[in-house]
Amino acid sequence: MDYQNAMLSVENKSPLLITVLYSNATNVHTENNVAFYTADWVTIAPDSVGDIKINGRADAWHEYIESGKEKKLFIYFFAADSLKRYDGRYSMDQLCAMKKYLKVNSYTEDQLSMLPGELVTIMIDSQHPF
Predict the structure, then answer these.
(1) Whose CA, among 4, 45, 50, 106, lies 20 to 30 Å from 12?
(2) Number of domains making up the chain
(3) What is the superkingdom listed in this entry's lineage (predicted)?
C-alpha cells in the first residue's frame, strides 16, 4: 500500500500564488510536467499553508534527503501564473536550470527538524524574474 507523508508544509507569506518543486539534488530531475505544478490542488495561495507530500511512511523525508549526494532538501518556489506560459515549451528541469524560479531554499535534515512544526515559510517580493 502506498502512503503519502505530508509532514512538511509551506506557509506562503507572499502576494503570489506559488507552487513548489522539491529535490534532493541541485541537478533537478522530475517526471512531472509544468501543468502538474500549476494545478489548483498543488498551488499555495497567498497567506495560506500547503503540504509538500512525498510517497512513503514517517521516515520518507529522512530517506529522501539521505539518498541525495548533497544530503539536503532543495525547495524551489515558482509563481504559478508565470509558469503557465512555459507549459509545453519547457520541462521543470529546464526551468530550474534556467533559474526561472522565485527562490530556492536548501535544508539539511537537522535544519528541517529545527523548523517549528516543520513549516517552511516563504516571503517573496512581488517582483520576480519572469
Answers:
(1) 4
(2) 1
(3) Bacteria
- 129 band by pLDDT with thresholds 50, 70 and 90: very low
Q: Is the pTM of this model over 0.90?
A: no
The parent domain of residue 90 ranges over 4-122
pLDDT digits 0-9 by tens, 42-82: 999 999 999 888 888 878 888 999 999 999 999 999 999 99
Strand ranges for the chain from DSSP E: 4-12, 18-23, 48-55, 72-79, 103-108, 119-122
Q: Which of 10, 33, 27, 34 is nearest to 117 (CA)?
A: 10
Are the C-beta atoms of residues 34 and 88 closer than 8 Å to each other? yes
Cell numbers representing residue 112 in the block: 528541517
Segment 4-29 shows an average pLDDT of 87
Residue 129 located in a structural domain: no
Largest CA distance in the chain: 43
Burial of 93 (0-12, 13-18, 19+ CB in 10 A): middle
- 4-12 vs 119-122, strand pairing mode: parallel
